[in-house]
Amino acid sequence: MSVLIVGGDYVTSFKHLISTQNYARVEHWNGRKKGFNKRQIPNETRLVIVICDFVNHSLANSVKEKANRGGIPLMFCHRSVNELKDKLNTHQTDEDCCCRSFCEAKSQFQKFH
Length: 113
Fold this sequence. Notes:
The protein contains four helices and four strands. It is 40% helix and 19% strand.
């Protein structure tokens, strides 16, 4: 069973936390290049974690669409390892997205432009 982390540059603390949660392998996409939008999620992936602070919207939407199509659980979190730890313990997925508040706040700001 493997986990895919999308975003972030230094994810060793995330990898350590996930390995203690009994996941076998962690793959990391930093998302810095355009080609990451076209990558396919590996077949053995059982969880996708998107670090919101380090990815652009097109990559986040692309990964979300591919995970939903494959039936893979998806978690959004910020840089905080503690936030990821809480979400892994409570099994929050896409429906309880922490980016929802960010997206709602963004739409409120767009009203003023």
